[in-house]
Each structure stands twice: as structure tokens, then as C-alpha cells.
């Protein structure tokens, strides 16, 4: 029904106008004049506008509230990081504890209200909160709780000179983690339709609370990495760079000292998992916030099925890359900083390994894109907050490593002296940008492609338009088989809709030409080669997805666990200056690390949907 025209005068007119409004330019008669004259038509339209304005206002207000909280938290983090006068770690932890406590109260209220109304039908977003996603966040949450236990042990060891907030914070964080994982398991798919204004503020508060916890983890981990980097600079011959350590170690003794040292090192090795947990929780909560008050369509998302058959090649190559990564990281961490010769050898080894892996990943991504290009298949352009967030995060977080790569390229081109290992950095930096560009194209097209079964149905029967009052031409039907399929459906239609059924595909050549020209294709459809048709094509795409998934896990490991040639190269710090380059790396590196884990998660979804 056309918006704002009110109700049709008769059931037959209702059927006619509803189809015209939804079908677009089809050969059907216009709605009857009686359907256009209804004195009551302005009332529902104005009412709908009045209902949407407060919700839009609530969305704007809640997002601004979240940004205010986030900016305040970032300023506290910055003040603590630069040792601002009057701002200590206890002030920062008090603020974060208060945010977590407020989120806990909201989650308890939401869970309690949902339990009280559990018999009511609730709308669900089938794309959000996939099982593998909840499983991943549970794994990271378990490691985060272990990290909290280590922090409690660290507080007990240094209890003489630490404030009470450093003991309360890990306890509160562990409770917050447990309840949040329970909340996401049960309610990540919810489409909230009641108390929408209150829920918007509660969910956006949770989003930015997790983002601040993520920023706190990134800052602590970056300080640790920076201190280790400064200690290694002398071995590479950069003695003119200031190496004053930014140390926050308590000014008292810990008993027993061996246990305290082990706990301190263990904390920093677990930080990467805590960082991934916080950012993953914030993305799931953001999708929940976007779904508040959303109207869902009737199209249901197909259940993802994990199948391991036929992916031997991709799995073997990916596991080989993973094993090589672990070996390279171990050798790199052992040799870097020992001597100048060993440090240069470690850097050359890492660059050769990364160049080889990035070239293989780029070739695999190009092969997948090529298969998509020669296969005619429509894209799913339906509204989907989870899928849109995935695409935006892939492009947004890739910009972090692109920034570092461009900095390295400029440093190599502008430097006066070029140690031997810096020339390996040039192809490495270029390949980092090219590979992510190709991989983003492959992932985004994969998650926007319609499921295989749905596409086959569309090829058989495109769009059926109910036309009133004209006989069906035989040329409008694609084949006798299709006519046989359509005719029974027409007999089952209600009297108001009984008319003739015509196929948009085959009713004229113009639509076909338009469709082909919009895709830039030739009049004759391009077919896949025989060895890529049917099951073989799916197996090739699954092998590509499996290989890229394991490679992204492999490339997540080195920067997450201290293998960062951007720090140890040293050339960029001479060209740009120590502090500017360290600021660039500390800002961009968290996004680069998150990109690899998010790309791996997206590729797992692509694999399951192929």
C-alpha cells in the first residue's frame, strides 16, 4: 500500500495497490481512484512520525552520553600515562569500577525483567550473536578471569604500597566479566521493543565501558612493550635516543620475589586475550544497541554449518603457516636485543617469513575474488547491523597498519643510512597494505552474497507480480516447468489476489539488458570452468577461507606477544623522531592487532556459509 493514501476501498483494490507499491515498475494497472480518497489518511502517517521522533532523539542523546563518558575516561587514562599532577592510578581505577558497577546494575535489571516476561514472544536478530562468536568471547573471558586472579595475587604481594582500589578493581572486573558473558549468551540476539529509551542508555553505557576497559588494557600492555623496546635500543646502536623507562612498579618489596616476578610477566602475556575480549564484547553490545526498536523482515538467516570435509589443502597450508609463525616468534624474542648482529638477523628472518606469508594470502584472496567475478550471483543488500559493523570494522581497523606501513616506506625513502635489514622492510610494508586491501574485498563480498539455496530459487522464479484483469501471455513464462510451478500457487491465492501471474524475467528483453549492463557483463552469461562447478567450487572457496583464517591467526600472534619490528627496526625513530613515531605505533598497533582477529572471525563465518 502506498504510504499516506489510507486504506483502499475494497479488498480487490487492496491487493492491487499493495503489489504495485512493492513491485516497482511492473505492467500492472494503477490503484483505483477510490483508494486515493480517504479522509483518515493523514492520521497514521503523522502518528508514525510522532512515534519515530522521540526514538531518534533517544538514539542521539544516548550516543552523545556514551561519547561523553568515553572522552572523560580517555582523559583520565592520558593523565595517568603522562604522570599528570593530582591524577593517580587509583583515580582511574575508581572511575572504571564505578562504570562497571553501573553496567552490572543495568544488566541485572534487564535479565530480571526478561525472566519475569519470559513467556512473551520476543523478536530476535538471527544474524547477531552467532554461536561461534559467543564461544570465542567465552574463551577470552575465561583467560580474562585468570588475568584478574593474577592481578589479585600481584596486589597481595605488593599490598604494603598499593591502594585498596588495585585490589577491588580485579575483583569487580571478574564479576563484571562473568555476568556480561551470561548476558551476551542469553540476550545478544534480542530486538528490544519496550523501555526503548532506557535500554538505549543502558546498552550504550555498556558499549563505552568495555571500550574504556579495552583502552586501559591497551595502555598497560603498550607501556610494558615500550619499556622492553627502550632496553633493546642500545643493542642496535641507537644510543642517541633517550631510554628513560616509564615505570609504574610499586616502590616496595614483594614476597616471595620469584613468585611476584612470574606473576608480573604472566599478566602481560595474558593482556592480548583480555584486549580481544573487551573489544569483542563492545561490538556485540553495539549491535544490540542498533537493534533497539528495529523492524525485522521476514527473511530468516540460514543456520551456519561447520563442515571439515574437503579442506585438507587449505588446513594443511594454514597449519604449516601457524607452526612457522610460532617458531619465528620464539626465535625472534630470543635473539632480539642480545646483540646487534643477532637483532639484525632476527629482523631479516621475520621480514622474509612475513613477505612469503603475505604473498600467499594475497594470491589466495585474488583467486577467491576471481571465482566470484566469473560467477553470476546477486548480492544480499538487506539491512543488517551486524554485517554492516563487520564491514566497517574491517576497513576501519586496517587503516592502523596502513598508517604504520606508509610511515615505514617514507622512512626508508628519506633516510640517509640504510642498514641491510631495512630493504626487507620495504616490500613487507607494501605487501601489508596490498594484502589487507585484497582480503577486505574478498570478505566483504563473501558476507554479502546470498546463500546458495536462495540463489537457485531466484534463478528459477525471479519476482512474481500479481496483475489484475489481463490474461497471461505464454511468453511471460520462462518454461513449461515454471508455468506448472506457478499455476497451483495462483489457485491457492485469496479471491482478492486472484488474477494473472506474469514473470518479470522473460516479459521483455529490456530488463535483461539493463541488468547485464549494470554489472558490466556481456549478453551471454559467463560460466565457471568445469573443475569449479557445483561442489568443486565450494571446496575451493572453503580451502581459501580456511587458509586465510589460519593465516590471520598466525599474523595476530607476533604483535600480540611482543614481536614488533616497527619498534625494533629503529630507522623510523631516527627519521620521524623517537616520541612521534612511538605515538604513531602505540595508536595504530591496537587496531592492527584487532584487525587480524576480526578478519579471522569474519573468515570463519564465510567458511561456514559457503
From TrEMBL:
Low complexity composition bias: residue spans: 7-26
GO biological process: cellular response to insulin stimulus; detection of gravity; negative regulation of type II interferon-mediated signaling pathway; otolith formation; otolith mineralization; proton transmembrane transport
Keyword terms of this UniProt record: Cell membrane, Hydrogen ion transport, Ion channel, Ion transport, Membrane, Transmembrane, Transmembrane helix, Transport
One example GO MF annotation: identical protein binding
Stretch list, region Disordered: 1-49
Catalytic activity: H(+)(in) = H(+)(out)
Subcellular location: Cell membrane
UniProt keyword Transport present: yes
Membrane topology designation: Multi-pass membrane protein
CC terms in the record's Gene Ontology section: plasma membrane
Family matches, as Pfam families: Otopetrin
Membrane-spanning segments: 65-86, 92-111, 132-156, 168-185, 268-289, 310-334, 346-372, 393-413, 540-562, 574-595
Recorded superkingdom: Eukaryota
Membership in a protein family: Belongs to the otopetrin family.
Record's protein name: Otopetrin 1
Species per Swiss-Prot/TrEMBL record: Macaca mulatta
Gene behind this protein: OTOP1
